[in-house]
């Protein structure tokens, strides 16, 4: 089950991937993290999929991360008397709180919080931006708009408000119920939708505590503007290009993606690039060349993971989609240009002893014949710092905590192993050598680097590095500690 690439693959589960056999095939094809989309599926379905993943984890002996993606507040217009209406460019159109079914010149927008934030000149986007409105005048219960781009508007289409920060919490009432449910199940990562400000993350953190890691979805222009502050209070980031591409000009998305990925790498926090990566594979067994290039671009940028949504949840070819992701990653990472780009974009961060230890491990591994870097980690921080270095050799994270191992499954290049607590460094070296041999990373006199902290079992104490052989008899032949 050893992966032949460092990139991680996130696969969303749904009707097309809903039983043990299919989910296991997805894992064997290359899925490292399974996403449970809380926008779809009853709690009973979510619980059943969660149980299947944990059974596969037990059957294969490999930790698997589970990501619960909260829906977030959904802004939608009301209904129309005839089910839909055609809007012409340049006409007037009114949004208000009146629940009367709409027609060609008005419809309900049942969100007073939007009217409270609107100002003349603000844009409103309907149905994924296909219809564009500009506010001419507005009040606490209405907005008179000009139709900039017309089209057919139908019942309960989504509304985006890109120009203002809305006075909405990132957690809706539904999200709070879903969050309580998945935390009780034992989810590893929570994806927080509709993040606009760092306070949205800290609000969720007060509920989640240390029971799960929080991944902030960047899908609003406001979140891009205060991204550094959001990153500082998040455990990871998802570049959710779908809504982001609706609310900002599409040509702005690629440079923003690059900037966010680079910032996450520097902070040693995992970043997922998501949305429409292999969209055509919902109905086709083969992706388009442009989609493959899109996936490759994220890999060249150094993203920790790429994500499949409907491709694996509801598509006709879920296994083929995961296999494609896996194969593209293997091919890109074997390209010499990949290493050149990754290493030229590495940003040195040397503020702690642990930073120096992991940087030294990477440099030793690149100048000598080292087969793997093995990290003993309590909280996962040492492994994350090692992954930030993007070393040329595999990273093995050994931890006694299942929660830590599972969360690290999302991070670039980290291969996670459960390990009993150790009290002496020599036994840590022995455990690392056993894991390296078991995983096929080295054998006999092959050498590995072992990173740990003394005294053991204290998070954040990384302070020791040793080059050691994979063979135990050679380890015990060295001088006593």
Give the gist of this structure.
This protein is an alpha/beta fold. The chain contains 18 helices and 21 strands. Strand 17, helix 15 and strand 18 form a beta-alpha-beta unit.
State the distance separating the first and last CA atoms: 35 Å
Indicate the mean pLDDT.
94
Find the count of extended strands (DSSP E, 2+ residues): 21
**Stretches with pLDDT under 50, minimum 5 residues:** none
Structural class: alpha/beta
The CATH architecture of the largest domain can be named as Alpha-Beta Barrel
- Helical content stands at 25-40%
Number of helices: 18
Strand order of the largest sheet: 1-2-3-12-13-14-15-16
Q: Which of globular, elongated, flat, extended, rod-shaped describes the shape?
A: elongated
Q: In this structure, how is the largest beta sheet organized?
A: 8 strands, parallel, barrel
Protein name: Pyruvate kinase
GO molecular function: ATP binding; kinase activity; magnesium ion binding; potassium ion binding; pyruvate kinase activity
Family: Belongs to the pyruvate kinase family.
Keywords: ATP-binding, Glycolysis, Kinase, Magnesium, Metal-binding, Nucleotide-binding, Pyruvate, Transferase
